[in-house]
Design goal:
single chain, mainly alpha, 21 helices
Amino acid sequence: MTDPALVRRAVKAAALGNAMEWFDFGVYSYLAVTLGKVFFPSGNPTAQLLSTFGAFAAAFLVRPLGGMVFGPLGDRVGRQKVLAVTMIMMAAGTFAIGLIPSYATLGVGAPLLLLAARLVQGFSTGGEYAGASTFIAEYAPDRRRGFFGSWLEFGTLAGYIGGAGLVTLMTALLSADDLVSWGWRVPFLIAGPMGIIGLYLRMRLEETPAFAAEAESSRPKVPLREMVRGQWRALLLCMALVLVFNVTDYMLLSYMPSYLTSELKYDETHGLLVVLGVMALMMIVQPFAGALTDRIGRRPVIAAGCAGFLFLSVPALLLIRQGSLLAVALGMGALGLLLVCFTAAMPAALPALFPTRVRYGSLSIGFNISVSLFGGTTPLVVTALIGATGDMMMPAYYMMAAAVIGGIATWRMQESAGHPLPGSPPAVTPLPSVPTPAHRN
């Protein structure tokens, strides 16, 4: 039996902590053009943007290392403790970026320090998503796991909106010179107090019933190699699902603001406002889509998202390239609603691929390898492809290719909606107590 109040508290804490994490990543994404001017030599704006996205992508290269450390650790010592550590490291890395001198002041040392801070962020994030989704999945009742899991991505969107909203406000209020001189530091420095709040929330979490039951058993812990070798089929399936999820996610939420500004010469403030509106729309739809996955299943919802990106990516990008505010909003809105198919279903679908004993570790490894190779590199790869080919439709083609891979993975996965997690007993919500009428004498 699940405790509804405890489930809500666990979901809130995990989602709020995830929002703190992604506020930090969102700020970097939306300040990409400005950061290129601050930390890299002046000259070719495209080269500056590529360098900034290169530092962005470098953090994703160490995410598998973080996953290999934090994931198995979460299966040994507990989900709650590891999630607290990742919160501390992420906040520290982000706060440090706000203190780094510019290239004009420190020279080549500035981008090197930026890279070091990004590596700390990436290493800590290696244990974040898998831990948070595992935490919620193991607390939620079987028949509502999709709904509760969807709040994790609700937190992600809230963090992105917080970062985007702050950058948009500063872009509107500050001159371009002030933004480059000092304004860009403010969002990163906010990470300090935000990290303290996130740590407090994480420390108040209780361990999941599934892990507590596993910890009480006398079975030996699974070594790292067995988390890979013994789960290789599920790992491949996980990596394919994460590929389509994260390529489309980072394309829309991280790359598109810079695409509108640097490639289409769109007004920077208006471009950020459009993305902000799309994320707000996604937040509204997110819980309803999560509940839908509980009713009709994860597979139909994920399959609908793959089909949508396959057939609608080109029309949506053509709309965006029209340049008018209405056309850009329609194109971005269509992509955002398709992305909800993944953000609503994946937090419940991915943990269900693995048994309790290796869930955190195996999911961390599969998730982060896929994100590192395909998701986090999306802005860098697409920018480079556009530069090499001159084809401004490359973002659409990239999303279509990801949709094909995701569709094949969806066809191969088993439906998990309404079923217990592997290695765990059924989790059900207790029926409300009904007062017994008093007996008459």
